[in-house]
Every structure is written in C-alpha cells, then in structure tokens.
Design goal:
two-stranded antiparallel ribbon; 17 helices; 52% helix; Cyt_P450_E_grp-I; Hsp90 protein binding
Length: 490
C-alpha cells in the first residue's frame, strides 16, 4: 500500500512538472531558480530573512528574476534602477495590488490598501482629496501633531525617570492623530478601549511579520484548514471592523452635511450623493475597511519607526548629542518645535531620514501586480502577475550610501553639512501605490522625536555594546527588539 501511494505521488509530481515545463507563458518571464512542483521555490527562501534571500538570488539571476511561491510565479525587482523603472516610469502598469491571501480574507478586496482596479482608484482619489480637505500638509494638522507631542511629553514625565518599555506610549501618539482625522476623537493614554486597540494592532504586526504568515500567504489553503496565529489576526481584524462600524453608525445619527467634522463624515456625504448609483463603491462596508486601513497604517508604521529611532539614539549617543545641540540652538526651551524649524535643522532632518533608511521597515514592500501584459527589461510579464519590489535593495545601495550597513546621518548631508535629498529614499514606496499618509508620517516623526529630545535625556539600562539593534523579525516588517529606557527630564 505504501509503495502504491509513493508511486502515485511520484507520478503526480512528474505530471505537474511536465505540465509546468510545457507552459508556453513561462518562457516570457525573467529567469529564476527551477521550482519544485506544488511548493515552487519556497524551500530555497529563508522566511526569517526574506530580504537576504532575494539579495542572494539577485547575485545569480540579476535585478529582475522569477520565483514560484507555491504554484504562482512572482517577479522580483531588485535594485534602484529596476524598482524605479517599474514603480515610477511604468507606474500605471505596476499599480495593481498583488495577492496577500490573509488580507484578502479579511478585507474582501475592499478598502484602500488591498483593493484593485476602479474601486481602488475611486477610494484613493477620494481619500487623498479628503485628507487635504482635513488639512493634510497644512497648519491645522501640524497643530494637532504638536498638541499630541505635548501630551506625549506629559505622559513620559509620569514615568519619573524610571525604566519603561516605550512601546504603547509611542503607539498612542500617532494613533491619536489619525483617530482625530478619522472620527474627530482622541483618547486618554490610559483609556482601556484605546489600549485594547493598541494591543491588537501590535499583535497583528507581530503575526504578519512571522515566518508562519509567510507560509500561509504562499499556501492559502492553510488559512481555512489549519490552526495558527493567522486565526488570531483575522479575529483582531473583525474586532476592529466592528469597532469602526459602531463609530460609523454614531456618525450617521449625528451627521450634518453642511459641516463635515472628519473623514467618516466626508465619506457618508459622498455616499449620500451616490445613492442613485447602484454600483457605487461608497458602501458602509468599504468605509469600515478603508478606515481600518488608515487607522492601522497611520499608527503602526510611525510608532514602530519611533520605537526603533529611540533605540538607535540610545545606541549612538554622539548622534543624540548633535541633535539635541541643534534643537537647543534653533528651537530653544521656551516653545515646541514646528515644521518651519526643519529647514534650519539639517542634522536632525538627516537623522530622521537615516532612521527610516537604516531600519528598512517594509523590506519587500506590499506586493504589486501588473494591470496589463507588460514588456519590461526584454521580458513579457503577463497581466495579473504578482511583483515584489525590494525596497531593501534601494535603501542599502552602496552606490548612493557610502556605508549602508552603518547608521550614519551623514548619508543625508553634503560636504557643507546641508541636508541632501536622495531619490533612493523610498521607505514609503514610490509611484501610484506609495503611502497616502507619507506627509503626515514625516511630520509626526520630526515633531515627536524633536519634542522628546527637547524635553528628555535618554538613558539606557545596559552598556552601549549590549544594546541590540537587530530586528527580531524581518518578514512583512522589520521590528525592533523590546527594550527599556529612562526618560530623564532636562
């Protein structure tokens, strides 16, 4: 019996391999390692460090190559030239969202991040316009961030210089900013409902960056039939959706179409205007998913970056000292920092950029997909093919950054000490799918970090050589290790 089963499995594998080799479409794709039947190249990838695996493949196959993650081909773009050419020069063709099965199950193709086609275009256009109406990039949003920065400082003062893990405090600040934009509400840092939301968000990020989630996304049948942390992720997503649906219903009851207060109000007004359109994308479920997208993206990426920034500033006190000297000279102690100060603070601006470059927060970006058959680098990529763009390879390019493995703000300074822009700076991605909240995130990082360093000295609990800055996971996101520090008032 065992021999019969073995023969059947062997014949099936040979048949699948034969069919795969006969596939006329594969010859048009870029080269890559030979995949195994069913599992593709999965065993050749280190799910704990995908970015290094992609770098290794690029050394063999060049800047554009094909991997089979399961049975489907994925085209990988490695290096600045390939990534720029795809996302910027061919932005429209590479503007699709690639498959991310665990998110597809929770979002059902709705929202801002994981939607496609006309639905995505309409929701993104509306979102960008509404964020501008609500003051994105203008003074009133800056005022909100400055007010929250002062609330953050007051919360840090309550630690009385005692050791603390900054994870949740640093999550609360950007979360309150995005909440004020979405539903005109901020929370007290000790609000239990607020802390529960923070805990679920943090949990989701840990799950999404785990090796198990990489397995699930490449073999989606596991999501429905296997136990694992992906089920907790889906429960967390359902909880968030229910929470936002409750907020939406409250807004429906108090809506004043002549005086929209926040993102939800603007959306509900747009929905009412499209009541006659039965194919309208502006449904309540789409609103709940869109708000959930804005909430998660507007909280986690910024809070992780803040957390990593403080860890790096602990590790490199000479950088911290230079930033604090610049803050004292430009801002002083009698007012809070503002965005206008940034142009007079090149070293601080360079430090913030270097943090984002060095931590390489989303190493392989979110998956893209081509929206039509695309001729790219002498290859023909079929419509719908998933594309991975290695942001790591851009942010660590040694042609642009002299010592990319080293944390050094000088990477963004010229020989005169002036801030130097770089086209290789792509932590927010690039092109049509780049982060819609980039402007807000940049503002928050500058104002939160400068306000913290204006008011506190950072004291580590261990010797500098024992401060570990190695990411604990490097799947979807590169997450810093947990740590404690003391905020000493100055």
């Amino acid at each position: 019996m065992d021999l019969t089963v073995a023969l059947l499995v062997g014949l099936t594998c040979l048949l699948l391999l034969s069919l795969w080799r006969q596939n006329p479409g594969r010859g048009t794709l870029p080269p890559g390692p030979t995949p195994l039947p069913i599992i593709g190249n999965f065993l050749q990838i280190d799910v704990k460090d995908i970015r290094q695996s992609l770098t290794n493949f690029s050394k063999v196959y060049g800047p554009v190559f094909t991997l089979y993650l399961g049975t489907r081909p994925t085209v990988v773009l490695h290096g600045y030239e390939a990534v720029k050419e795809a996302l910027i020069d061919h932005g429209e063709e590479f503007a699709g969202r690639g498959r991310f099965p665990v998110f597809e199950k929770s979002s059902k193709g709705l929202g801002l991040v994981f939607s496609n086609g006309n639905r995505w275009k309409e929701i993104r256009r509306f979102t960008l316009m509404t964020l501008r109406n609500l003051g994105m990039g203008k003074r009133n949003i800056e005022d909100r961030v400055q007010e929250e920065a002062q609330c953050l400082v007051e919360e840090l003062r309550k630690t009385n210089g005692s050791p603390c893990d900054p994870t949740y405090i640093l999550s609360c600040a950007p979360c309150n900013v995005i909440c004020s934009i979405i539903f005109q509400n901020r929370f007290d840092y000790n609000d239990q409902e607020f802390l529960d939301l923070m805990e679920r968000l943090n949990d989701d990020t840990q799950i999404l960056s785990s090796p198990w989630m990489q397995v699930c996304n490449n073999f989606p049948f596991l999501i429905d039939y296997c136990p694992g942390s992906h089920n907790r992720f889906l429960k967390n997503m359902d909880y968030n959706k229910s929470y936002f649906m409750k907020k939406i219903k409250e807004h429906q009851e108090s809506l004043d179409v002549t005086n929209p207060r926040d993102f939800i109000d603007y959306y509900l007004i747009k929905r009412n205007q499209e009541n006659h359109n039965h194919s309208s994308e502006f449904t309540l479920e789409n609103l709940a998913i869109t708000v959930s997208d804005l909430f998660a993206a507007g909280t986690e990426t910024t809070s992780i970056t803040l957390r990593y920034a403080l860890l790096l500033l602990l590790k490199y006190p000479h950088v911290t000292a230079k930033v604090q000297e610049e803050i004292d000279r430009v801002v002083g102690r009698h007012r809070g920092p503002c965005m206008q100060d940034r142009s007079s603070m090149p070293y601080t601006d360079a430090m913030v950029h270097e943090v984002q470059r060095y931590i390489d927060l989303i190493p392989t970006n979110l998956p893209h997909a081509v929206t039509s058959d695309v001729k790219f680098k002498n290859y023909l990529i079929p419509k719908g093919t998933t594309v991975l763009t290695s942001l790591s390879s851009v942010l660590t390019d040694n042609k642009e950054f002299s010592d990319p493995e080293k944390f050094d703000p000088a990477h963004f300074l010229d020989e005169k000490g002036n801030f130097k822009k770089s086209g290789y700076f792509m932590p927010f991605s690039a092109g049509k799918r780049m982060c819609a909240g980039e402007g807000l995130a940049r503002m928050e990082l500058f104002l939160f970090l400068t306000t913290i360093l204006q008011n506190f000295k950072l004291k580590p609990l261990v010797h500098l050589k024992d401060i570990d800055i190695t990411p604990v996971t490097s799947g979807l996101a590169s997450l810093p290790p947990t740590y404690q520090l003391c905020f000493i008032p100055v």
